[in-house]
Amino acid sequence: MKAGFRATKVDVHLTAYDRDPGYMGRVPDPGAHQPRHPGHRGLGEILAILDRSHLAPKVREMASRVFRRLADAEARVHGTTPERVQFHDVGAIDAIVDVTGSCIGLHLLGIDAVHFGALPVGGGFVDGPHGRIPVPGPATAELLKGFPTLDTGIRRELVSPTGAAILTTLATGAGAMPAMRVTTVGYGAGTMDLETPNVLRVFVGEAAVTAPTGTPTETIIQVETTVDDMSPQLYEPLLERLLESGALDAWLTPVIMKRSRPGVVLTALCEPGRVADLSRLLFEESPTIGGPARHRARPGDLQGVPARRAGHHGDPRVRGDPPHRARPGPRGARGPRAGAHRGPPAPLVPLTEPPAGTTVGGAFPASDPSLRR
């Protein structure tokens, strides 16, 4: 029982590990960026342990993806490469059991898709290998970029890097609970005693509503901001850069703002993991001071299929129809007319940076033929 709720708690006991931290047969990791400590492992060692295991291939594949994503996050935090990251607590055998145990559970239950709601990350400070750090920890914060979170007022660490890596790697959607026919509800108990029941609730069921095409839906994010002091010449290159940075679509909507000022709403659709990149691009390339990010749902297979079609004028990018909407003939793949005559992209520089050879005060190079009368 946990705070009056019946819940399952799993404790990992490794007697052999307590006697000999190297009993699993470590493989050398010369690229580790810190000295060897008991329970600390590099990514290569963990992947080697998984490869030597007798786990089902699907379980090994899921667990490997979790640890690779975690290594990428740790590498960004510490300014190194994933191969040189040395995990601390996560490298211990009990944490490997946590990750593989989650993957085994999903595999045995036959789960096709995982969704989770906004995560209560907690707050305060915790002591770790790098000293006293704020909650959520740097690696957790990196992993949760683009995913919904909330603050419940509890000053404890509620989401660990391991938990964040499992959810953000294996989940296909985040936010509102999808329409489903619930068949089972389970509760997992945590160790700490908190102001609220320290339990994790899991709903298992079958999708109750599907898209008209018979496909499941996926969660996408709508990033939006409104500006009224941006040069119209900069709109087109900004939209292009949003698409190049991972936006699924981007467009402009004219609006009338307060005091009857004309403005433009910049909107971009993206996957949850791309929100941080697109938000940073909007801050760098437009005068925005912020904007909302809303969750949307769309059929899971309606995205276009990127492709290339060679022609007499280069190799323009086109976007083909989804497989279930493919049509024979030349209409099967199409691309914007602008892409047919555009050459190789120029080096990316901030849109608001003056072109080389110009003076901000208004003087222009005399060699520019467009300025001659």
Order of helices and strands: HEHHEHEEEEHEHEEEEHEEHEEEEH
| Strand line-up of the largest beta sheet | 12-13-11-14
Low-confidence stretches: 17-38, 301-342, 358-368
- Helix content bin: 25-40%
Domain tally? 2
State the secondary-structure class.
alpha+beta
Mean pLDDT: 76
- The backbone outline, from C-alpha atoms, is globular
Give the beta-strand count.
17
Strand content: 15-25%
Task: Give the topology, please.
Layout: H1 15-19, E1 41-42, H2 43-52, H3 57-78, E2 86-87, H4 93-109, E3 115-116, E4 119-120, E5 125-128, E6 131-134, H5 138-143, E7 149-150, H6 161-170, E8 173-174, E9 180-189, E10 199-207, E11 217-227, H7 235-244, E12 249-256, E13 262-270, H8 275-285, E14 293-299, E15 305-308, E16 317-320, E17 333-334, H9 338-341
Parallel strand pairs: 3-8, 4-7
Antiparallel strand pairs: 1-2, 5-6, 9-10, 11-13, 11-14, 12-13, 15-16, 16-17
Helix pairs in contact: 2-3, 3-4, 3-6
Describe this structure in words.
The protein is of the alpha+beta class. It folds into 2 domains: 15-207, no CATH class; 210-302, 2-Layer Sandwich (Alpha-Beta Plaits), CATH 3.30.70.1380. The protein is built from 9 helices and 17 strands. It has helices spanning 15-19, 43-52, 57-78, 93-109, 138-143, 161-170, 235-244, 275-285, 338-341; strands at 41-42, 86-87, 115-116, 119-120, 125-128, 131-134, 149-150, 173-174, 180-189, 199-207, 217-227, 249-256, 262-270, 293-299, 305-308, 317-320, 333-334. The chain has a 4-stranded antiparallel sheet with strand order 12-13-11-14, covered by helices on one side. A 3-stranded antiparallel sheet has the order 15-16-17, with no helix packed on it. The longest helix has 22 residues, at 57-78. The protein starts with 14 loop residues before the first helix and ends in a 32-residue tail after the last helix.
